[in-house]
Fold this protein.
Amino acid sequence: MIKLLHTADVHLGVKLTGLGKSGDKVRASLKRSFSDMIDAAIEEKVDAFLIAGDLFDSNRVSNSLIRFAMSEIERLGEIPCVILPGTHDCLEQGAVYLSLDENEIPDNLKIFTDPDDSVMRFKDIDLTLYGMPNMSRRSKKNPITSLKRLEGDGKHVLLAHGSYMIPEKTAEDDHPFGLDDIDNSGFDYIALGHWHSYFELPTTSTKAAYSGAPETVAFDQTGAGNFLIVKLDQGVELEKRHVGKTNWQEIELSTASFKYTIEVERELQKYVGEDNLVRLKLTGIASSETIISLDELQENLKDKFLYFGVIDATSAVPDDLKKLNLPKTTILGQFISQMTDEIDLTQDPDEKALLTESLKTGFAMLSGKDVL
């Protein structure tokens, strides 16, 4: 049996614009997660440590970060580490992998830096690895069909960095490939990178999976924070391992349910944590009855999270809609006229409050505003 550790999209050195000083802590978490994967590889006694693209967030990384990565890889000892250049650390002019001094490269590190020499044989473990390095950030070149499996015994594994083609979703210049490309490839396993969420593709003959990023680096990412232990024997067994240190979450609250600052604070207490990055998106209708201070929220909660931010997505509705004098020949004008007449006629305070709220909500919806 051959055992591999498969990771990708580590993004060492990511900028994390907008997080301020919290960005430093997230970058430190990235380094800790990488070190933990090295520890796992040593403990599991894997046969190879595979990085399917984007070890670095760009080709402009500091010498200290390069030394960190190289020293961690060196800790693997005799376990080979194989790197495929991805989209962020592609083999463009000035690429980090092309500028490495021979003295900086550990003996156990192998990098796919030549598109004409994309095969590595490890005869002692009966393993052959393939990888077509990305030459640019965008390309229509298919990373799966670019290489053909060679004849020979043992296990044959391809490293590829690109996007599984989903019609009307995947860009045609995002290194695309399809399911048939995988199933017809003949490889025993394809270690994918580029998507930050773990995903095993629904293939029929050749198993392929995105390991996902070991650490989340954006609020719109879900399913990150893992790496894979891959066992190749009669078949292929994938074991997902969690390694991420930070928790990112965007929380959406509406003024329909929360009208006061203290109510929002209480709701957010359940998400408090020193490793949690939380972004509050406040939606709904902001009126004179809504007393939520975003500055106060920011000040009161900033020390309870690794990062706390607020997005104001509320919509303003005038308190006295009659003063708008909208023509009754329009749907919006008719709606306001009918609703205000009903409000004036009712004597029930509860019904008046309900009609008033309905008026504001209806006005916002008919005006194309966000009310949810």
About this structure: The two ends are 54 Å apart (CA to CA). The chain has a mean pLDDT of 92. The chain is about 25% helix and 25% strand.
